[in-house]
């Protein structure tokens, strides 16, 4: 028996007939060929498979694709906007936040969610947010630095926007910044793309 | 690659619809909430339901808040929601203490309160927390809603008072003005299940303990509670000696088993020490209506 589902992934709706036992991680990787989402432990421990489901990070190896019918999914491929990398992605590049890269997609999606809710997290809050995710290259120091880098960059952009607004030129470019299932909050995204 | 065996999928759109689906599909059907216990069990073929009934769309099970003189926690409330709710922290800091150490933030986004209690794993943290505060479970079947005292809810490992054809819809916790509560756990690493954990609630009056609730998990305490230690405390003045003795009594009456998380004697030691600590913290919090330290 298959069930027809429509899931909006990175802003684009996909309709597929799936077996109910198909896990979200395999739906994204095998049905949609979005292989940025990694599949690791299979036991909801490592976090390599984290995606946003209706704006919230979940471990997609422990979610059935059928349960996502009508919902919004964001994968690592959905982080960049209009060809520009998200501040979190830039932070990982700047601060050597990855070695082999296996844990990276999940780390970046959880970091994005953290910064949307808490734009200036200290090291403790970053480590708590990623505590359900494993980096076997044990690059946690650099991952924390990468997220701090992104937070600083976004704060700087917000400050610059504020400066422009104060001078009466509040031109934010006006593009949509809501995106698939993302809690933008406090204009963090205007910031990254301003 | 771990994949569940084949099953059929139904999505419930109301509680009556979920109950009708449970009745139609019979004993081989199971409800799925967060799926964070059930899907791993299905991958390992420890569970093999023929039909899954998805209750994630049931907004009526997501209620969380004060209703009259009680806190109402819907079965579908996610761990993360219980942790984020300020009223929960004000009246029952024990739940915030516990939720901070249940799994990890991403798992907490998906796992539910109802799923935790119905899973009835002998190491479930929330089972001890709800036992400590003497909650009432609301169980709905074709004949209506039954109220089950939480200490009658767990029948044994992985066994609850929820009969086939029934749903846990939520939990009600009576608010005791001025009571204090706390939870503490020892785990091997961040996000792990407890080696042992304890929770407590204390209400003081006229300089003595008017009500004591003690919950224990992962140490083989019947119904996740420590009634002998509670009885010892009621009517006594709160203090270090009384709390240490209550810990000793609780440790003596639990029945831990050795496993990969540690030997039985170590777990028994933890049970006593954790009970002492949570009583001390609950007493410090008692009396201040703002609850959390
Ligand atoms: C990596 C990891 C770490 C974890 N660490 C901890 C921990 O430290 N401490 C801890 O206590 N727990 C821990 N858990 C368990 C987690 O808290 C529970 O798995 C989860 O919350 C169960 O809830 P669920 O909604 O996912 O339930 P599900 O998996 O959906 O369901 C579990 C069972 O309950 C039944 N059920 C669910 N809802 C209802 C309902 N409303 N009425 C009747 N039956 C129902 C289902 O049929 C099933 O049998 C961990 C889980 C994972 C994956
Ligand atoms: S593959 Fe999902 S948590 Fe490891
Ligand atoms: S970079 Fe290799 S696992 Fe994290």
UniProtKB/TrEMBL annotation, chain A:
What Enzyme Commission number(s) appear in the record?
1.2.7.4
Instruction: Name the enzyme group at the top EC level.
Output: oxidoreductase
**What does the record give as its pathway?**
Alkaloid degradation; nicotine degradation
GO molecular function, a single term? anaerobic carbon-monoxide dehydrogenase activity
Tell me where on the tree of life, at the top rank, the source sits: Bacteria
Q: Where is the composition biased (Basic and acidic residues)?
A: 154-175
Q: Which UniProt keywords apply?
A: 2Fe-2S, Iron, Iron-sulfur, Metal-binding, Oxidoreductase
Q: Enumerate the residue ranges of region (Disordered).
A: 153-194
Instruction: Cite the InterPro entries for this sequence.
Output: 2Fe-2S-bd (IPR002888), 2Fe-2S-bd_dom_sf (IPR036884), 2Fe-2S_ferredoxin-like_sf (IPR036010), 2Fe-2S_ferredoxin-type (IPR001041), Beta-grasp_dom_sf (IPR012675), Diverse_Oxidoreductases (IPR051452)
Which positions fall inside the 2Fe-2S ferredoxin-type domain?
3-79
Please give the PANTHER family that the UniProt record associates with this protein.
OXIDOREDUCTASE WITH IRON-SULFUR SUBUNIT (PTHR44379)
Q: What is this protein called?
A: Carbon-monoxide dehydrogenase small subunit
Q: Which organism is it from?
A: Planomonospora venezuelensis
From TrEMBL, chain B:
Chain ranges of the FAD-binding PCMH-type domain? 2-178
What is an example of a GO molecular function annotated in this UniProt entry?
A: anaerobic carbon-monoxide dehydrogenase activity
- Name the SUPFAM superfamilies on file: CO dehydrogenase flavoprotein C-terminal domain-like, FAD-binding/transporter-associated domain-like
Q: What class of enzyme is it?
A: oxidoreductase
Identify the keywords attached in UniProt to this record, alphabetized.
FAD, Flavoprotein, Oxidoreductase
Source organism (scientific name): Planomonospora venezuelensis
Q: What InterPro entries has UniProt attached to this entry?
A: CO_DH_flav_C (IPR005107), CO_DH_flav_C_dom_sf (IPR036683), Diverse_Substr_Oxidored (IPR051312), FAD-bd_PCMH (IPR016166), FAD-bd_PCMH-like_sf (IPR036318), FAD-bd_PCMH_sub1 (IPR016167), FAD-bd_PCMH_sub2 (IPR016169), Mopterin_DH_FAD-bd (IPR002346)
Q: What Enzyme Commission number(s) does the record list for this chain? A: 1.2.7.4
Question: Taxonomic lineage of this organism?
Answer: Bacteria, Bacillati, Actinomycetota, Actinomycetes, Streptosporangiales
Q: What's the protein here called?
A: Carbon-monoxide dehydrogenase medium subunit
Taxonomy, superkingdom? Bacteria
